[in-house]
Records
---
Amino acid sequence: MAEQKQSSFGAFINAKILPPIMKFVNTKAIVALKDGMVYALPFIIIGSIFLILNSFPITAVQEWFKDIGWSVFFNQAYQTTFAIISIWTVIGIAYVYARNEKQEALPCGLTALSVFLLLQNLVVNSPLVSAMGKDGAGITDAAGKVVYTGTQVAEQIDKLPQVIQNYLTSPVTGAINMTWLGGQGMIAAIIVGLLVGWSYTAMAKAGWKITLPEQVPANVANQFSAMIPSGVIVTVSMLIYAFFAKAFNTDMLQWIYDVLQAPLQGLSDSLGGALILAFMVVFFWFFGVHGGLIMGGIGGAFLLPNTADNAALLAKGELTLQNGAHIVTNEFYNNFINLTGSGITIGLLVFTLTAAKSVQFRSLGKVEAVPGIFNINEPFLFGIPLVMNPWLAIPFFMTPVVVALSTYLVIYFGLVPPTGVAAPWTTPPIISGFLIGGWKMALWQAIVLLISVAMYWPFAKKYDKYLCQQEAANEAK
């Protein structure tokens, strides 16, 4: 009867719930978003490596790098990879959109980058503004040591004529603001990438292009084909920039951040956001749909900016919740919600390797042993299977939720630090914890593994007994 109810419920989900969700997930925009953001991942990982070196979890090593002057080089590598995540995002999304529409993709991606830069004020504050005053950062040398305090800087500036003071503290024009190239520009980058991808391909399909004679080399002709769509998009973007400047005395990126990104990041960074994310990953997987790809693609739009914001704080040595650090980041998702694979199935693996009596469990445990260390658990998802399996549904659904809740709380109460760097998602547990948050994070990951064992063990034991009975019945036939 229970299995019949489960089958009826599964049929309802597959017939009524999943089709509209999958239709949404497979729209052109969502596919471009999901696949386009992947282009940023290598730079996030590479930049994180240098950020880890610059903020090494062992204080003595960190200080040694500063003393020998290498911290500035590590920071340079971080600033040109992870810190400009929005550039990789806007190019990647527009590129994938055009590629999927069978259009010349690179010109579309470069047009999106041009628009992304055009829509922001090319102005940055004078570094003296943040250096001056009692709470100012002061002036540092190449190794990051303060050579002039904020008070000392202010005292020296005050001795100068007012005209020179105004000149020194006025904003610097003609400069690209690094703030918008990082996490704070992510939602704007997504919007620009999608709109440019859509409008560029629409014009290209409509034949808005300059056609050159056949004798002209293809690589040259392709660039002329891109000229009209790119020119129209850039012109419209200039008018949008002018509208925001004249009407609101701001730029579009600042407006998007204030109206959209800040509220959405707040929602994603909440306890409720963490629990929904943890539940939805296994919800999709339970019905045979790749929950990791779906939630990683959609959630990444908000989680990656959270990680980037934390990385910027870590680079300044200010990664604390009091300074605005986020709890729920992309690393929270990868290294806790999906630790050892969707459903956090390490507990099930431990049972199959140490206590299972059925041939099916023991055999699949051996197959999963190595992949499980590297956070890959498809052998369990489809081999046991966990998909549509009522025996293991409770721990499969609840383990990620319990881990998301407890991890949020230990970070919230300061027992474990927030994460500011990324590690490859295949990095084994405990090692990944150390890399992204030091020994405290590594210790907490070890505790999470024990939570998984405790959650799965009683249910796996009952299911193993059922499998043994099935195997015995089959042998008796």
---
Amino acid sequence: MQHLKKLIHLINQKGKKNIVLFEQLTIKPGKEQSLFQGVVNATFHNDHTASKYLYKSLPEDTRYVILKSRLEAKLLNYLLFLDLTESNQKQDDSAKRRCELLVHQAKLLSRQREYQMSEKILRKAIRMAKEYEYTALQIEAQELLLHIYFTEEALTSYQTLKVQYSQQRQILAAERDAFLLYQQAQLELLQDKTTEDTLEYIYSITQQLQQRWQQFQSFTLFDLYYRLHVRQLELEESYPQLLVLTAMAEEFVKELKVNDKRFNYLHNYRLRLYASLRAGELEAGLRLAEQGIPLFDPSSEDWLGFTESYFLLSLHSKHYQQASALLKQVEHSPIFTKAPVVSKEKWYLYKAFLHLMSVEQADGLPFDYETLRQKLPQSRKDKQGLNIALLLIEFCYLLLTHQKNALTKKAETYKKYLERHFTTPNLLRERIFFLLMLYVIRHNFRIEPIEQKSAKLFNQLKQSLLPRGAHVSRIEIVPYPQLWEKIKEILRQKE
């Protein structure tokens, strides 16, 4: 029943209105149509209710099994008529679907020996596949066309196309080998290891992919090489080099070394902002973000990701007015209401940290930590992710509101959290910061002994590296050294 429900949902969502699934001539609908309508109207929740209504029997009844099989076959055939093009679909995805449809149409015509029409469609498919560098589709269309030339004994056309076909087969073989290398590298990374051996292995695969791209100049080869190279530089914490690579990729597109119809320019732009943030190139990143505003549609997910990097760049560089303006844009954006829960929770935390760092640029309302906690049910489960930021903002809130007793009671909680969850090297900065928080409590919130005792630990924090390959959720919403300075400022004001 689940398969039927999914197929019917897809057909109702994507089906064209001028094509009917069932004949409308009969007064009484047949059992296939009754089963279809029962699923659509949610009359049939499962096989038991459907078989009982249609045959007064159990789902194992042969009549019901055959009926369901016939309806499923009809639905699968109907998939050929669906309009799968979406308004937010990337240009190259839409082109690929059109190209696949052309090849399918040519196959049907060729089977009916309509070679002239089939040849015309295949030539169009080959031009499109070549324009977008769909190697496999180009080969499939060429094979059909070679068959037509062979059947019609068109020797000259056959020999000319055969040369092009042989060249494309070499490229496809290289792409398939490269894809296996890429998959193997990704599987290695799924082990969540960042040992020197792993880094060397990923580097060697990246080099092999680069060599294949340079040899065959295929977009697919470039894409595989580029994606793995980006991941390699993240793992190596080589964010300045990542900035160079992302800028170089855009130059390759301008120089037509990389297919501009397939290259995801918006994703690359977001990657450049991310690299700017991680490399500490804050002012350059802000200038880049300012230039990128016209490129992103405010109703798209790309815009939300772009604005997130822009906001973090503003917050890290202490441009709180800019950060506040971006936050308000997000809160009033329709795309934010459709965002996943975790994405919304991140933005709630961003607002809390902005409020902490600059009350002047907040919305004028007092910071309500309890409301924030209620908005973050998922984040509290992520002990090494956003929950860390939630604990940090809790500490600062209690400090701001002068709740020393509450903080003293939480000292043991922070200590246990530190011991249980900050045991790996990539959480060293979090471990240091929680130790600094404990220093505040143990020295009774007095700034002078805290500064003296924490100096060495604070220097360790400033010199420690950010975790390898961390995702956005692990980016410090406010850099820990900057946050520590804010905590000391609060302590001075409270004395």
---
Amino acid sequence: MKVSNSLRELIAARRTGFNLDAPFYTADEVYDLDMEAIFGRHWIYVGVEPDIAEPGDYFTVKLGRASIVVLRDDDMAIRAFHNVCRHRGAQLCNELSGSVGNLVCPYHHWTYDLTGQLIHNQHMGENFECGKHGLKTVHVGNLAGLIFICLADEPPTDFEQMRETMEPYIGPHRIADCKVVAQDDYVEAGNWKLTLENNRECYHCVGNHPELTQSLYEFGFGYQPSSSNAEAVQEFRDLIEREHARWEAAGLKSAEIERLDSCVTGFRTLRLPLDRDGESQTMDAKVACQKLLGDLTDRRLGGLSFWIQPNSWHHFMSDHIVTFSVQPIDAGHTLVRTKWLVHKDAMEGRDYDLKRLTEVWLATNRQDGALVEMSQRGVASPAFEPGPYSPYTEALVEKFTNWYVERLRAAIA
């Protein structure tokens, strides 16, 4: 991996407890390193099982210059391939999603089955060996219905540890028995790390997210204790203890697990109660879908949040799931893809109203996008210098930047 001395010095000089220096957010050289060292070597969340519910269903994802096709084969296994024909390199699938019997190159019609094997071509001579020209595979990880890919030859091995830890948390929500009823692809005018930093704190939530804070407790994501809020903070802690005991007794894992910067595949999870005797992340904090997920019967299961480095976060409620993936476009633009899932048998108009289901996070995404864009303009200013993180409300941002810088150091060592 070729890295300039100036970039090595920038990485070495990172100051703990402060946000990153401007080139981390603005320089093309850093973006190129991010795509190779972070998105090219780690497990990247790309979709959910219901995206490819049937054999032949596929979706494509772009990571830097790499295009990947993720599909369900005839045996219902999930596979991923580089979206490149082995003949002269034409892109095989040119839509975001679809369904096929085989993968047929639109250029010269080389045909691959759903396991990636070349099964048909013409004019290549009698001695041509199809078996040597199958599609190039990409590693796939499935965590209770969340689909991850890894472009590295040898992916991080701790994915299995994360999967074993998280399946009991996510399993009762039964992603495979859901359907995706809405998807929002929104491009933020900012670097992907600003998108992640913004997500990893709620310091900004009050005053910026009026829809989201209808159901989120003010103290749920960090708060500096003081004499004026001590009683309210203690009440919230007592509520968490009571609700965790109730949920755990019902077989729902709820306790915090925090490994954001202590693992190669960093992650964190926690189930928190919702405000206003809340049931779901909606404007009135009531369920958005009357048909609950899996075999769940209690609407008041709070919100189970799951954060994974480097590119995703997810919210699981009794009635629906919201998943988010981050895909860098260039140094100053980032795609945020949001999906809403409900039970596969839920019917629009009877069980759920799509506007009510999506309105909180559609609004929140646009508000976050505006904040990220403002941050991008700020870090590009010659007056910018890294400022200190709050130890109370931005501790998870520090863990993200710690993880990020340590992964760069490991890659260039």
---
Amino acid sequence: MKTIRQRTAFSAGLLALAAHIGGVHAQSAGDVQTDIPVPQVSGPVPVSAESHPFGAAAHTLQPQDLAQMGYIEEEYFISGQANVYDWPERGTLTVRTADVPYTTRVLVRRPVRAERFSGNVVVEMLNPSNLFDLNIGWAMSHTQMLRNGDAWVGITAKPIAVETLKQFDAERYADLSWANPLAASDPLNCEVSRDTTQATENGLVWDIHSQVAAWLRSANADNPFVYDGTASAAEMLYAWGYSQTGSFLYTYINAIHPEVVSVRGESLFDGYLVAVSSGPAPIHQCAERVPRDDPRRPIENAGVPVIHVMSQSDYLAGIGSRQPDSDAPGNRFRRYEIAGSGHASPDELYWGPKPQDLIQAGRAVPPLACNEGPRSRFPNRLAFNAALVWLDQWARDDIAPPRADLIDVVDGEPVLDEHGNVVGGLRSPYVDVPTSTWNGNSTGESFCRIAGHEIPFSQEKLRRLYPSHDAYVSAVTNSVNALVEQGFLLAEDGADVIREAKRSEVPRW
């Protein structure tokens, strides 16, 4: 692997090894810094009746009382210096702009008591696709995190989301900055559009991500996981990204992760969960998208486990990102395609910022329904809860997750069963004991094209499939038991599915 180097080449090879990764500076050829810098931290930021964190658990569409669950939520501001990189080819990373000052915010949800903490921290770059922070990882899997005692850390990961924060509470978020040090007239500062401006720089996110991880692993007193005042209780850090931030993780794994390992001798993260993304994001806001056949696209030889999850909304468009599962020690990789699932689920809105806060921030409230009806209620949490457990077992104990078939595709089209549901993929009782046809794509405003919807079966069809309510519950129970035995469903989630079946009206009319 080629070492990182500045645009103006260093004269000494040892200097190249230590060159400006995440603000690391080489003092001399014989004095090489071998770790990632820890950012400066301010917080927890006070909360009052007049000022609360944007997206706080108590201020979501479906509010959560974390204190009742033995958890605490804290917001921090972190500051440091980050580089903007170029990534011309796999194994080559160059510094485009060095040591750019930044300040961003981090939201932490953790057990109050150390003995309740599992040692697992899910680190999520908050999704900015709606132009504001969405905590999709928490929305999908907070049930599993809470019952296991895991912590969650969300990072504001794009300047457009910072703009939203400032519009929401200008005083609270006054210090946040992703300012671009390059003048608009600088040839390296290109014209941009939609959610990006020349005044800011998206490419700071990579070093921010690394520096947050370094902070969480540090013994600094401001680390929220230094419960006893001496060392971080954060044993395992798992990076989590979804859709746009799934693409961020693709780039981080393939471009940044190897250099972090070369600098500090090991990974900052113990595993990665890359969701509903089929390739890397541009390394900075002026960079071109990575072409479909580019060698930089596959996730290979990360050295830590990587789980890649696709939904039914996007697996077909991203079919070129399919790559073989692997158990090789240096290349542990799994791909799952969730049969029946939607990409833009209602969960991300249920546990996202409440509409009043979105309006205060000057953002549109995303719709919970599309032209075909409500967003798909398909429970993505079943797969994502299992994926968190698989990732942890693989990283901690080298217990490999089960392998699942991919969704069947023939001549570029999905293979459908008699009910119109896809064949293959990661299964659940919702497709194996169906009461609906599950679609991954819909029509309408905002992200309806990837929201999905269901078409419930008629009463007559339900009666044909399930002659009695007991017959339906029995079929669901058998499906749950088989999936739990195969390792595709957590027992706790399976019990919830059975309880839901017992409460249902299938087919009681």
